[in-house]
Design a protein that fits this description.
CATH architecture: Alpha-Beta Barrel
Bound molecules: D-xylitol-5-phosphate, zinc ion
Helix content: 25-40%
Strand content: 15-25%
CATH class: Alpha Beta
CATH superfamily: Aldolase class I
Order of helices and strands: EHEHEHEHEHEHEHEHH
Structural class: alpha/beta
Distance between the termini: 10 Å
Mean pLDDT: 96
Low-confidence stretches: none
Number of domains: 1
Number of helices: 9
Strand order of the largest sheet: 1-8-7-6-5-4-3-2
């Protein structure tokens, strides 16, 4: 089971006019993957980028692209992103009428699958779906915008998800998304996360490597527990 920590910068806070360069820079700075936030101005009150941008970025990007769909309905767009070269596609179960069908649809296109949970969204669906997914995404902000503050209540949810994953015995990653900074990433790791999305904390600084290195230094004390 590969439980090494992964840092996946969210492109939402990158300079969209130079997106290919931005992604290459952040990968050179040590990013383990790229987190691609998709907003539809329906499920969330904001609009970002679609599958054509993902397809274009795929050529510039040698690390995995994880697509975070904040859209409703889910299925048709999930297929477009699978065809555009996404490695993993996460969606919000409350945005899909038939969660099991959506999971199978994504997997049928050869992608890994994640389920994303808003701060007030219960985890009940995991009881039935944990055996079919590759990642649980715990939102630590309300989805729709970068640069928001971390919601502390997410820590208890991360702990709960960690137990569910461990009890399942499956290789499921626990990703946390929203408000992650150098000064709180250790608490998120201590609660049980292994994959960290950070947008504004990385792209808001000039030196991406300095931020990613500082995050890894904060994570180092927890690395052994995760590897065990
Ligand atoms: C929020 C997005 C996040 C967000 C992360 O809806 O899903 O990925 O952009 O950005 P920061 O790290 O700035 O909270
Ligand atoms: Zn996201």
């Amino acid at each position: 089971m590969d439980r090494r920590f992964r840092i996946t910068p969210s492109i939402l806070s990158a300079d969209f006019a130079r997106l290919g360069d931005e992604v290459q820079r952040v990968v050179a700075a040590g990013a383990d993957g790229v987190h691609f936030d998709v907003m539809d101005n329906h499920y969330v009150p904001n609009l970002s980028v679609g599958h054509m941008v993902c397809q274009a970025l795929r050529q510039h990007c040698r690390v995995p692209i994880d697509v975070h769909l904040m859209v409703q309905p889910v299925d048709a767009l999930a297929e477009r992103f699978a065809e555009a070269g996404a490695d993993l596609i996460s969606f919000h179960p409350d945005a899909s009428t038939h969660v099991d069908r959506t999971v199978k649809l994504i997997r049928g296109h050869g992608c890994q699958v994640g389920l994303a949970f808003n701060p007030a969204e219960p985890l009940g669906v995991l009881e039935w779906m944990i055996d079919q997914i590759d990642l649980v995404l715990v939102m630590s902000v309300n989805p729709g915008f970068g640069g928001q503050g971390f919601i502390d209540g997410a820590l208890r949810k991360i702990e709960r998800v960690r137990r569910l994953i461990d009890d399942s015995g499956r290789d499921v990653r626990l990703q946390v998304d929203g408000g992650i900074k150098v000064d709180n990433i250790a608490r998120v790791a201590a609660a049980g996360a292994d994959t960290f999305v950070a947008g504004s904390a990385i792209f808001g600084q000039r030196d991406y490597a300095a931020v990613i290195d500082a995050m890894r230094a904060e994570l180092a004390p927890y690395a052994e527990a995760v590897a065990a």
